[in-house]
Amino acid sequence: MLLSDWKAEKTGEIGSLAGSSLAAVVLVALGASTALAVTEGGGGASGTCLLRPSWSEGGELVTSPYGVDRTGRASAGFHQGLDIVNSAGRGDPIYAGVNGKVQLVRSGSGGNYVVTETGNQRFIYMHLDRFGKDAEVGKSINPDSEVGKMGSSGANAVHIHLGMLMRGDALRGSGTSSRVWASRGGNGGTKGSQPLTSQEISSAVPDAWYFVNPEPFLHHRIKFRPGVLSAYGGQMSRPDGMTLPKSCSVSSDEWQSSPYSSNGGVSQSEGMGSTLIGGAGTSDYATDTVNNSERSFYADIARQGHAGLEMSTQKARAGRRELDVALGLLILGELKGK
User: Fold this and answer.
1) Left if phi > 0, otherwise alpha if psi is -120 to 50, otherwise beta: which for 84?
2) Interhelix angle 293-337/3-15, nearest 10 degrees
3) Fewer CB atoms near the end CB (10 Å): N or C, the chain?
4) Can you give the pTM of this predicted structure?
């Protein structure tokens, strides 16, 4: 589109909004791409963040991160959620945090748990002490709907396990390199399986559901319990000791190392040594993780190339948004002078 055409189109749209709020006028002026970035975080597979704290904030800490191989530390396999504790503890009300509906209410190996659905996302609240007054399958919910009470059902200690699922049609075009797992039945965990490859993510089944990291979708950032991050060695990095910034989208830079763990998630300093089999325990998995210097060399080149391409793409998007902002402000200035 020519600059003059774009300007004429936006001027017409803004003129039709006479009497509307300034926010509405600015969003139109900035262009669709910028409006999307403002409302949904931009980049990755966008969705909805928790609109309110879903539990009491006092003393809250993440005690077990998402995506780490916990073999040798807790239950075997990869952790497909965040474990969070707080000072209130058992009986603390757990709220839906979003608008949507209750998709599942069940008691099973994960204790009492509720799954809520909003658009292309599902949130899982696990290990509840008991179900809340709004925990009815099919019931419409809002952020203040109570789905349960914090507890320890199916677990050894009181905490809330927060899981998040994203539908395949929203995930497949994200280009994310995050740790993602296919869900069993749209709500069940698959912690014994390996994370999907980038190619598998791009080929995600549109109406299937996939586990993603809940961190960017939290209402606010939360501290990790001291020592938790170092306990998992190089599996993840959070330099400030906090969960990822709130972006309401699947992040693509969460992991600094390969999605495969070579030692069951236990750091070398803990004296567990190194094993090639790790959590999966198969010869194929061992072959995939063999420390081959030539393979590592080419893998490093590939990672560097991908990082460079992603940075260039982000700069291009930022440049387009800056252009939209500049042109939008110019149009607003001209309208103000008429």
Assistant:
1) beta
2) 60
3) C
4) 0.66
